[in-house]
Amino acid sequence: MLKELDGFAGIELGKKFEEHSLQEIDKFIEELLALYDYLIESKKNYSIYEKSYQTQEGQKKLAEETGVLKFEKEKLKEYQELVRADIQDEEIAKLNLPEIMYPFQKEAVYDMLRNERNILLASDPGCGKTMMSLTYLSKKPDSYPALVVCPASLKVNWQVEVNKWTPGIKTYIVSGRDSYKDDFVIYEAKKADVVIINYDILGIE
Fold first, then answer.
1. Which of 96, 43, 106, 104 is nearest to 72 (CA)?
2. What is the b/e burial string over 94-122, where b = at least 16 CB atoms within 10 angstroms of the residue's CB?
C-alpha cells in the first residue's frame, strides 16, 4: 500500500520523514485521513451489494475490517495533533516573544496574531492579560493607535506596563471629567500610540 501511496499529496514516501517539513507531513496526514474516510465509506457501501458480507459471519468480518480502519484513522489523528503542536512551537519561536512569558501566554499571543477578527482575551485574573495584550500590539504595529479603557485607579498602572513591555511606545493618560473637550488634551492624545482613559470619562457623552 505504501508503494501505491508513493507521491501521494506530493510527498515521496521512499524518503525519510525527517527530510520533509512539518507542514508537508501535516498535509500528507490530512490526505491520508481523507483516504481513510473514503475507504470506510466504500466498505460500508460495498457490503450492501457483496453477498459474502450479508451473512452473520460476513457482518462480523465487516465490523472487524471497519474497526481496524477506524482505529488506524484515530491513531493517525493523534499523530497529526503532535505534528501540529510542533508546527505551532516552531511558529511561536519565530515570533521572538519575551522569555519571561509562560508557554500558555505565548500560545495566547500566537493565537491572537493568527486571528483576523475581534479578540476577547478572557484569562483568569493574574494570568498576564496586560502583558499578553501589549505583546500582541508590539507584534502588530498596524494596531496603533490603541485605546485602553480601564478603572481610574489602574490608569497609571497601565502606563507603567506599556513602558515596561513596549518601550518606545508613547502613552497619554486622559484625566478629568471635562478633559475630552480640552483642545490640548485632544492634541496630545492624537500624538500618542496608546491612549489610556477610564470608564467614567468615556461614558459622559
1. 43
2. eeebeeebeeebbebbbebbeeeeeeeee
Residues paired with residue 198 on neighbouring β-strands, in sequence order: 150
What distance in Å separates the CA atoms of residue 75 and residue 156, rounded to the nearest whole number? Answer: 52
Q: Which three cell numbers stand for residue 50?
A: 457483496
Residue 96 C-alpha cell reads as: 521572538
Q: What are phi and psi of 171, to 5 degrees?
A: -115, 160
Through-space distance between the first and last CA atoms of the chain, rounded to whole angstroms: 70
- State the Cα–Cα distance between residues 92 and 110, nearest whole angstrom: 6
- What is the model's pLDDT at position 97? 87
Would you say 174 and 197 are in contact if contact means Cβ atoms under 8 Å apart?
yes
Question: Comparing C-alpha atoms, which of 46, 43, 93, 45 is closest to residue 69?
Answer: 43
pTM greater than 0.70 (yes/no): no
Give the pLDDT score at 10.
44
**Regions in the chain scoring below 50 on pLDDT:** 1-11, 13
Of the candidates 166, 123, 125, the one whose C-alpha atom is nearest the C-alpha of residue 148 is 166
pLDDT at 35: 85
Side-chain half-sphere exposure of 64, counting CA atoms within 13 A = 7
The chain-wide mean pLDDT, for the chain, equals 80
Q: In what order do the strands lie in the sheet with 171-173?
A: 146-150, 194-198, 171-173
